[in-house]
Amino acid sequence: MTLHRVRRSVLVAAALAALANRAPAQSPERPLLVLSMGAGYVTGGSIWRLDRQYALVFPPVTSGEVDSVALGRLFRPGFEAGLGVTLFRSPHIGLSAEFSFLGISTESRCSPLGPFAADSRNVNERTCVDIQGKLIRTNAAAFQAGATWRPAAEAKVQPYLRAVGGLAVLGGSFVETGGVVEVPSSGGAQQASLVSQVFLADQDRRELTWVATLAAGVTMEASPGTQLRLEVRDIMTNVPSVTGPGDYLSSSPFAQVGSRTVHLLALTVALDLVLERQRTRRY
Description:
The protein is mainly beta. Helices cover 10% and strands 58% of the residues. The protein has a single domain (31-278), classed as Porin (Beta Barrel). The protein has helices spanning 2-21, 123-131, and strands spanning 30-43, 46-56, 66-75, 78-88, 93-103, 106-112, 135-136, 140-149, 157-170, 177-184, 192-200, 208-223, 226-244, 256-278.
């Protein structure tokens, strides 16, 4: 009798196990760890404008004549490229980290405020022409971390929001404004020499700043294990900004410098690689 009960218990347990294995209420796979590689287009606006900066006529004449110019700096359209990783510990919330290179070159501006003073070699005038539209390499490398939220974790098309922040290393001066021009030499009309003229100098160039990014996008399944991602990003960072003129009587006309928070709008395309998956069941 006891052996019969044992056999019946074993059969019941086996039947329940078989039914559980055949249960149709099984959620689809969802990615836990996602590696992203992307690039995109970045654009920004004006950074600073100085309405008047004086510059001594070069070489300085005994009368102390000066020229007046308006100076400025603005962002050029650039690019962004980066690597990122997101770990989803729950279906909707993930921890994100990314490293990105921001090709945020800037462009200098110079315009005269009236006629240039008499100068046989026109150094200030030539310098202003060289400054106008000059490309300045002010790229940045940024590391950021934060969180990602996706409302539809099981869908093949998944909208999401992301917020990250961190530090960025600046690659160039946002302040220094000058040029190197070729002018006739005083030794004769057929000779020429290079002259460096700086209208604004950067006394303490800042190399480190903060950066924060708010992003919204959508991922679409491209194939098993890969996703295509489109994203719009608002990249906020703090950069040096000229707040006042430099001392034109000094050999180094150091500008008065503050800081300004700027917004860079980016549109990126990325490929997501799903490195790990989890299969969950509900009974």
